[in-house]
């Protein structure tokens, strides 16, 4: 049985459960983690961010959007007029990079220095530039250290972290690891019309190009050993949230 099939099976079983929310972790070992760490990866538009956030809310967990860290560094580079194709110049941005992100799923404001960049980091100019800084190894090491410290920080009994390499690099030993996928047409349809001022064709080009560049650095299209695959192509948004919550409950109850 492939990882994909076995996960669909476990998703089906888990979705049928109606167990109450549990914040304990009796079945899955937390390992060195101080709380339940849920790692979710996937390509652009798969629903990682919105689904992870809603799942965290449903479970009373925190939520960590790791892409916001990369986007914020790209935003800083654009503000300073840095050549983002020059790895040395990009590494220079890390010196004194004063970054903060909220992990309350109801308050995910993002700050760089004194500037609230929550909205700015979603602008197309940032989406178009972010892959250039994400390919610099020193950037990844720096941000991964930061992400790990947030995952292990005191707070709620669990945290859902989403990105591209959370299941494989940031927290390969997380008690729950999920690859959230959806086929290309579904992902593009979900993204279509989301970004003001851009045609659907431009949005599609941007999403596919970002995936192409990002997948040269980390593999987020296939599940690593032990990672559950959840294909949301045929699921509604609410069904996807339910499936993710059920997978988490099944793993920790
Ligand atoms: N199962 C689903 N069915 C329909 N729409 C969905 C589903 N999952 C997510 N969406 C919608 O798809 C859009 C993209 O979702 P989201 O921003 O969470 O994706 P993402 O994987 O985090 O993308 P990116 O990596 O580009 O930030 C959102 O409008 C979200 O509401
Ligand atoms: N774990 C991660 C998360 C993100 N990236 C890079 O950041 C970009 C923006 O991420 P979104 O989730 O907000 O779309 C993404 O395109 C990657 O370049 C990453 O490398 N690793």
UniProtKB/TrEMBL annotation:
InterPro entries per record: Cytidylate_kin, Cytidylate_kinase_dom, P-loop_NTPase
GO process annotations (BP): pyrimidine nucleotide metabolic process
Alphabetized UniProt keyword annotations: ATP-binding, Cytoplasm, Kinase, Nucleotide-binding, Transferase
Bias kind Polar residues: ranges: 16-26
Residue stretches of biased makeup (Basic and acidic residues): 1-15
GO CC term (a single one): cytoplasm
Domain Cytidylate kinase: 38-249
Signal sequence region: none
Binding positions for ATP per the UniProt entry: 42-50
Chain ranges passing through the membrane: none
Molecular-function GO terms, alphabetical: ATP binding; CMP kinase activity; dCMP kinase activity
Protein localization: Cytoplasm
E.C. number(s) listed in UniProt: 2.7.4.25
Pfam families attached to this UniProt entry: Cytidylate_kin (PF02224)
CDD domains per the UniProt record, alphabetical: CMPK
Keyword Transferase among UniProt keywords: yes
Enzymatic reactions: dCMP + ATP = dCDP + ADP; CMP + ATP = CDP + ADP
Region annotation (Disordered) ranges: 1-27
NCBIfam families, A to Z: cmk
Family, as annotated: Belongs to the cytidylate kinase family. Type 1 subfamily.
Name recorded for this polypeptide: Cytidylate kinase
């Amino acid at each position: 049985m492939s990882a994909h099939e076995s996960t669909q099976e476990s998703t089906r079983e888990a979705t049928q459960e109606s167990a109450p929310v549990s914040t304990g972790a009796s079945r899955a070992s937390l390992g060195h983690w101080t709380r339940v760490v849920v790692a979710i990866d996937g390509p652009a538009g798969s629903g990682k961010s919105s689904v992870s956030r809603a799942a965290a809310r449903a479970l009373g967990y925190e939520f960590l959007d790791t892409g916001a860290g990369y986007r914020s560094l790209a935003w800083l580079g654009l503000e300073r007029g840095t050549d983002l194709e020059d790895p040395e110049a990009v590494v220079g941005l890390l010196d004194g990079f004063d970054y903060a992100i909220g992990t309350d799923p109801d308050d995910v404001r993002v700050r760089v220095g004194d500037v609230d960049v929550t909205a700015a980091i979603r602008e197309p100019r940032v989406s178009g530039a972010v892959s250039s800084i994400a390919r610099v190894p020193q950037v990844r090491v720096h941000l991964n250290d930061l992400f790990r410290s947030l995952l292990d920080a005191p707070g709620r009994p669990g945290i859902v972290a989403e990105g591209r390499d959370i299941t494989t690099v940031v927290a390969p030993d997380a008690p729950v690891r999920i690859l959230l996928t959806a086929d290309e047409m579904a992902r593009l349809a979900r993204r279509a019309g989301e970004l003001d001022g851009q045609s659907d064709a431009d949005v599609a080009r941007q999403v596919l190009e970002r995936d192409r560049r990002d997948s040269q650095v980390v593999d987020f299209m296939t599940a690593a050993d032990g990672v559950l695959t959840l294909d949301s192509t045929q699921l509604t948004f609410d069904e996807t949230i339910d499936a993710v919550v059920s997978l988490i409950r099944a793993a920790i109850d």
